[in-house]
Design goal:
- The protein has 285 residues and is an alpha+beta fold.
- The protein has one domain.
- It is built from 7 helices and 9 strands.
- The strands form 2 sheets. It has a 6-stranded antiparallel barrel. It has a 3-stranded antiparallel sheet with strand order 3-2-7.
- α3 packs antiparallel against α4.
- It is globular and about 45 Å long.
- The N terminus and C terminus are likely disordered.
């Protein structure tokens, strides 16, 4: 095999690029620490509320429902997340590994905690994860921005997520199925019920186009779909805290959920950029 000599400058660039790639791989594979706040205000100034719900055979009780304001370290980036683990309590400063929505739904992290075995067979992990993913993406595409306008809509959006994760489409709603949030279980919040049922009705309306189905949702026109990248933050130990779903705007829908680069990646990329600038200056000299 012929030996090819690589110029010194090129070899340095290759080495730095390798550092960047290694750092990126390490960042995506390693767990990050997730903390959250329940006091971050939604669009109208309201904050996270609670709703009375009943999951399967579990006794009805008040459940905190709505988006949480999460902070991820390293990097200290903050963003809204919704819960994908309704029967697990959220813990502060938990080591969680970011992964794509598709990967999460295909893993044991999806309703993998022991608590899901204690609510009977009416609220369970759905076998058809394609339907689950498609419905989550459609819900987010049309209603995510709307959900952050006030606490009622945020709670209703959270409820809709939990319905998609644990119910068949025939049982979507606050008054039917294994997850209930109606007067029978002590929930007298009519505004919440109306909003949750409106989100779910639009989601399951197949008599018109998707855009038309979302054109009038409890008085709001949500017909315009938005694209997001979907990242799930899953605790390293299943059941030790909740799995959270965060999204960022994207040019196309991305359920692979590539996490933002961590500090190691940024440092490596900065080094590569600095080296390029130095080389240009050397040439100019």
């Amino acid at each position: 095999m012929a030996f090819v000599q690589i110029p010194l400058r090129l070899s340095r660039i290759v080495a730095l690029a390798a550092v960047c790639g290694a750092a990126l791989c390490a960042t995506q594979a390693n767990a990050n620490t997730i903390s959250y706040s329940t006091g971050q205000a939604y669009g109208d100034g309201s904050t996270l509320g609670s709703e009375k719900m009943k999951f399967g055979t579990k006794a009805a009780g008040s459940v905190g429902a709505g988006a949480l304001w999460a902070t991820e370290t390293p990097g200290s980036s903050s963003f809204w997340v919704y819960c994908l683990d309704p029967l697990v309590g959220a813990k502060q400063s938990t080591q969680e590994t970011p992964k794509g929505l598709t990967a999460f739904l295909g893993s044991s992290s999806y309703f993998g905690a022991a608590a899901y075995g204690n609510v009977g067979s009416v609220y369970v992990k759905q076998a058809n994860t394609t339907i689950v993913q498609n419905n989550l993406v459609e819900l987010y595409s049309h209603a995510y921005s709307d959900s952050l306008t006030n606490s009622t809509k945020s709670a209703a959006f959270q409820y809709a997520i939990w319905e998609i994760l644990g119910e068949t489409e025939a049982n979507y709603g606050t008054k039917v199925g294994g997850l209930l949030a109606n007067t029978t279980v002590g929930n007298n919040d009519g505004a919440f019920q109306t909003q949750a049922d409106a989100y779910l009705a639009a989601l399951t309306n197949t008599s018109v186009t998707e855009s038309a189905a979302w054109s009038s949702v409890n008085g709001a026109n949500l017909s315009t779909a938005k694209n997001f990248t979907y990242t799930v933050y899953t605790p390293n130990t299943t059941g030790s805290s909740q799995a959270f779903l965060g999204v960022v705007a994207s040019s196309t829908t991305n359920t692979s959920g590539v996490p933002e680069p961590g500090t190691g990646v940024l440092a490596a990329m900065g080094a590569l950029a600095w080296f390029g600038v130095r080389q240009r200056k050397n040439k100019a000299a």
